[in-house]
Each structure stands twice: as structure tokens, then as C-alpha cells.
Specification:
Elements lengths: L2 E3 L11 E5 L2 E5 L5 E2 L1 E7 L6 E7 L15 E10 L2 E9 L6 E7 L10 E2 L6 E7 L5 E8 L9 E9 L4 E10 L10 E8 L2 E8 L7 E7 L7 E2 L6 E2 L10 E10 L5 E8 L13 E10 L2 E4 L5 E3 L14 E2 L12 E2 L7 E2 L7 E4 L12 E6 L4 E10 L6 E9 L2 E8 L2 E8 L2 E8 L4 E10 L2 E7 L6 E2 L4 E2 L5 H4 L6 E7 L8 E11 L4
Antiparallel strand pairs: 1-24, 2-3, 3-5, 4-26, 5-6, 7-8, 8-9, 9-10, 11-12, 12-13, 13-14, 15-16, 16-17, 17-18, 17-19, 20-21, 21-22, 22-23, 25-40, 27-28, 28-40, 29-39, 30-35, 30-40, 31-32, 31-39, 32-33, 33-34, 35-36, 36-37, 36-38
Length: 513
Amino acid sequence: MVRFSNPILPGFHPDPSICRVGEDYYLVTSSFEWFPGVPIFHSKDLVHWRQLGHVLDRASQLPLDGVRPSGGVYAPTLRHHNGLFYMITTLVDGLMESGNFIVTAADPAGPWSDPYWLPETEGFDPSLFFDDDGRAWVHGARPARQPQFEGHTEVWLRELDLNGMKPAGEEHVLWDGAVKGAVWAEGPHIYKADGTYYLLVSEGGTEHDHAISVARAKRVTGPYTGSSRNPILTHRNLGRDHPIVGTGHGDLVRTPAGDWWMVLLAMRPYGGGYHYNLGRETFLTPVHWEDGWPVAGLVQPSGEAPALATCRWPTPPACDDFDTVRLLPQWNHLRTPREPYWTLTERPGFLRLRGRPESITERANPSLIARRQEHVHFAVHASMEFIPENRERAGLVLLQNDDFHILLVMTTGGLTVIRREDGVDHTLVQADVPPGRLWLGVEAHGQEYQMLYGTRPGEWRLLGEPVDGRVLSTTLAGGFIGAYIGMYLSGEGHPTGNVADFDWFEYLPLPEY
């Protein structure tokens, strides 16, 4: 018996949506204020995934300028119809564009089209359903037209004109949650099985009370009747000390053999208290049917793998030596970059960051290249060449948002560790380290993040005491994302022509001890 481990996508990979094309499976997740947007993955066995790239990888597709922390791209849905892939999502609180939009591609690896905006729709978490009669339907969640309590939402449905890529015809209100007073009925997806339409909806809010409910109807437009066993999946009854919490926002997929599986988000608290620095991750769980309803059990840390031929992809190298001409797909920018502040070719074999005034404390696009934290215990090491001037700082950053992060940076005052909490900087330690070539490191065990440095290869020194990492958890910092770690250079509000060169960057999972 082949087994698999959850999560199947560790780290900040929330709101998963999946579709199958033949024997191939494709999956997307939310990306919020990070660019490129909507990472897309490929699998043949539902367990092992490789990243193909991003759906939204051009500024013309994704204007994130000035977007607030945990604004931006919410809850994408991925579907395939008549040889074309469709991705629909919401850009929330955009200052240039906002609302629901669709992009399409013949190849899931891209290129994807520029957005087809849907100003006729409202709300968030849009989804698509292609019926077997050739008709297409768009549906989503929005605040209820006649709200009865705070957080009261409803699911709407309209036909979609694929030629004009816009809604058409009458609007239908389908559902507003299964539980009395259910808040935030959202993330709707419609499926058809044995001639019956099923509506899968999350409710309870995307934190500890998250849950998934289901309703069914004889017509896609309803009326929908909920299952008497709702919610069909939740961990909220298991308490805050359970290893997997907040299960919800699921999407169903059926294998060629007829087996049903669900991808969904959940969190893994750790380090004492209810903190989850990794954010909401993507999990996999089996689904079976009883009395005409889908049934899902508890989401387990491990389980029997789908009855599919195992397909393992090559493991990406732990160390990026920056020998490519383009950034690898794990790297992201904070909001949409409008100028090339990084280069891999100006000094071959190095990632060069160009200094600019923008800081990570602003709702801006700073000179930052970052990747997700994916493990509770991990180590990051990097080699940097930088000579600071004036107020400049360069080095490593562990980022939750503009008001909550940790810095390990070289400044004119020396190598400095700064913990920012609730918008206030706390300088924890400053060491008199000569500028030039430095080796920088972070080794995390649970919520203890130990800063390291070296002035010669392989000669690591501790820098101060371990830093409390709970500042990187959304339970303290708020919002919807997980922690990022990356390379950073800023003039901190002042123009600068300086550069910081990074020779390599490695990310390694560490064993628990």
C-alpha cells in the first residue's frame, strides 16, 4: 500500500482549485499581494506536484500597485473545457482594477491571456461550471442582499457567454449557508454527478471554525437542498490543540477510475499557542458517496494514496546559485514590479538587487526577492556582497506583512537584527561586522528563529538570542498569508544607486529535535 503525507503543498498555498485533463491534474492556489500571481502545479498521482509557473505573470494581468496586505488575488478556480483552460478569480482592493476576471490558455504552463473583467458580477470567490449541454455558468459569493447578521453572504449564479466572455441572462441566488447564522458562505463550486447538481460551499470563516457543506438540485439553477449531514467536513469540533485545523475551501476531482478526492486548505499550529507561520496549506483527502451525498472524513497527516501510478518529479535543488537568466518559479515579488530592480545577467552567477527608496514597511514594491517558508523547522543560508551607505540596509527578511517581520541586515551601524511588531521596530542586536562579503543565515526550530553570520565560508557564528517567530503568524499579525523569507535592499526612503549581490541562497528543511 502506497501512502502519502499531508500537506501535499506545504507553506502558503491556500484556496486550492483542481481540474483533471485525461490523466493529468492541475492545481492553482491564491497569491494575494504577491507577484507573479496564482501559482499553477501539475501532477499525475495527486500526491507529487511540480510547479509549472504562474497564471498571472505579467503586469498587464495583475496590477497589485498599492494593494494592502492580504488584499490582491483571492480564491482562484481552475477549469478545462473544449481544449481551453479557464482561471477565474477576484482582485480585491486593487487601486487600479478590482473585481472578478477570467484568463484563458491552451497550455496550463502559459501564456495566459490578459484578463476578461466581469464588472457585471460582484463579490468574491468566483467559480465556473461547464454543463454537458454545452452551457457555461459563473457563480460566486457576495454579501447577502438582505443580510440578517454580520458576515451573512449568499451564492449567486448566472450563465456565461463564452464568446463575449461576460455573464448573460437571469441571476439566481442559490444558497446562503447550511448552519443557522453561518458566516461567510463562500468558495462555491458546482459539480454534476449522475444527473444531479451538487453545490460545495465553505462557511464559518477561514480560521478555526472553517467547514464545508453541500447542497444538491435537479437543475443547475436550483432550488438546492442541503445535506442533513452538513457540514460534511470540519475540524472545528476537535479543538485548537489538534495538529490540523481550519479545514475548508475544498474542490473535488474524480479520477479516471471513478474515485473522488478533495483538495482543501488547512493550518498546522505549532510552537506553543495557536500560531501557524506557514499560513494555510493545501491538503488532500478521500471522498466517497453515501445515499447520494459526498462524504469526507477527518483530514489525516498521512493516508493511503490514490490508486494512481506513482509519478515523482525531480526535486528542485535546495540551493539557487543564480546561474539562470530568469528567476526560478519559487521566487516572488511583493506587489507588481514596474521596473527591473533585479538582474541575473549584469553579474553572471549572482542575483543583483538595485537599491531604491521603497521599504517593506510601505504598501509599495520594494527591492525584495522572496520565497515561502514551507517547514516548521528549516534553515536558510545566503552569501551577500554589500557595502552600506547612509540609511541603506540589505540582507535577509522574514516577512508576514509591513507591520510584522524580522530583518537580518547589514547597515552602516553593523549587522543588525530587527523584529518589527505592530508597526514598531525593535533592534535586538547589532554586531560590528566588516562590510563586504558576508554569509547570512536563519535556522528555525518551531518559533525560535536563530540568526547566524559568517565572514568566511563555513565559519558560522550565532548573532544574538533566538528571535520569537510568532510575529510571523497571522493570529498575531492578522491577514490571510503565510511567512516569506528572502533577499532585500532598501534606501529606507532615500534614493540610492547602490547594489547588493547575492551569490547563492539555499533553503533546507531541518529535522525536529
